[in-house]
């Protein structure tokens, strides 16, 4: 997983910058082709070293979908429409953790482990064809590296308190998600003795929370300010973490599941708006800026996830306390940013 993250982080930086030079469409198609080649490598691999190399290629190619999609949404939509698009995209993406293990498990059970890779190959081909036929070019200007160097953009991002604050929020929310997926098997399978099928249903809870977050944004984005929605999302998440702590102390599996829903519901109200607003003012260099921003927050996500592994103590209380700490940190950082912006 760590090597996958490294390749993915390097990939978002590469594809974001490349999309400024050759266009979103061509960069996306190139990334999908590399993703497809990684899946082919996994299918035909005969030893572990080849598997590892193929996974790196797969991650590098797949990262194009993350950074270029965000770039396209940032430049193709504005205002409340962009908020709704980010929310809907997040809701659709939330189905992957729920459906992925189910599809992969069925494929492996009935057709063997290589069928998992053949399924990925088929998906990559379908995505490549769909993108080739339907993805338009959204880049409006050509960004030349001689005019605006990557180092200058990096310095601008690293000295922009607003971008850093939103970066902390994106990193914190995703860090919580990956930490949850790292700890959840211990909590629900080892501690509460769930079966694998029962545990698989937990992914549906996360998916439903993301869909619920998207519904809140779609309904309330015209009624309240985005700052208000970000704060309220964090407050809901904080209440959810309190529920997680209470459920862990009282050893309640049902309580943990319900509190998990409210925690991620709040976070998924905050996340789409955060991603939308993070790079406002960087429109003329949005591809490179998106790549650098994504690269940096993936590094922080990796750190947050690694920190959770260090804090694992064999107790189900570790995750709730860690999640609550990160949510409080995000609330404080965002409150400071809002106050400084008002001044």
Automatic annotation (TrEMBL):
Record's bilayer topology term: Multi-pass membrane protein
Which residue windows are transmembrane per the record? 26-44, 50-73, 85-104, 116-135, 163-182, 197-221, 233-250, 256-280, 292-311, 317-336
Which GO molecular function entries does the Swiss-Prot or TrEMBL record give? transmembrane transporter activity
Which controlled-vocabulary keywords does the entry list?
A: Membrane, Transmembrane, Transmembrane helix, Transport
Q: Name one Pfam family in it.
A: MFS_1
Major facilitator superfamily (MFS) profile domain mapped to chain residues: 1-341
Q: Which domain of life is it from?
A: Bacteria
Record-linked PANTHER family: MAJOR FACILITATOR SUPERFAMILY, MAJOR FACILITATOR SUPERFAMILY (MFS) TRANSPORTER-RELATED
What protein am I looking at? Drug resistance transporter
């Amino acid at each position: 997983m760590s090597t996958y993250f490294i390749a993915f982080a390097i990939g978002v930086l590469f594809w974001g910058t490349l999309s400024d030079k050759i266009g979103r469409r061509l960069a996306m198609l190139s990334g999908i082709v590399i993703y497809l080649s990684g899946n082919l490598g996994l299918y035909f691999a005969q030893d572990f070293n080849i598997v590892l190399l193929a996974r790196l290629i797969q991650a590098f190619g797949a990262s194009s979908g993350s950074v270029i999609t965000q770039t396209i949404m940032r430049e193709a939509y504005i205002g409340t429409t962009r908020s709704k698009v980010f929310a809907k995209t997040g809701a659709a993406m939330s189905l992957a953790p729920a459906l992925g293990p189910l599809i992969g498990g069925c494929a492996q059970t009935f057709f063997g482990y290589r069928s998992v890779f053949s399924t990925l190959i088929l998906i990559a081909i379908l995505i490549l064809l769909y993108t080739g036929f339907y993805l338009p070019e959204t880049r409006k200007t050509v960004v030349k590296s001689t005019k605006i160097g990557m180092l200058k953009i990096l310095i601008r991002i690293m000295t922009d308190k607003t971008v850093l604050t939103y970066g902390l929020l994106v990193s914190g929310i995703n860090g919580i998600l990956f930490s949850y997926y790292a700890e959840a098997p211990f909590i629900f399978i080892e501690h509460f003795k769930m079966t694998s099928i029962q545990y698989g249903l937990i992914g549906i809870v996360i998916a439903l929370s993301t869909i619920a977050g998207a519904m809140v944004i779609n309904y309330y984005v015209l009624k309240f300010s985005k700052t208000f929605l970000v704060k309220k999302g964090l407050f809901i998440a904080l209440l959810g973490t309190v529920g997680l702590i209470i459920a862990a102390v009282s050893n309640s599996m049902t309580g943990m599941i319900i509190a998990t829903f409210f925690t991620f519901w709040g976070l998924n109200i905050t996340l789409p708006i955060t991603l939308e607003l993070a790079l406002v003012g960087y429109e003329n260099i949005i591809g490179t800026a998106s790549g650098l921003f994504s690269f940096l927050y993936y590094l922080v996500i990796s750190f947050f996830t690694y920190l959770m592994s260090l804090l694992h103590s064999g107790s189900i209380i570790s995750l709730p306390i860690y999640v609550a700490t990160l949510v409080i940190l995000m609330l404080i950082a965002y409150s400071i940013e809002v106050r400084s912006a008002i001044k």
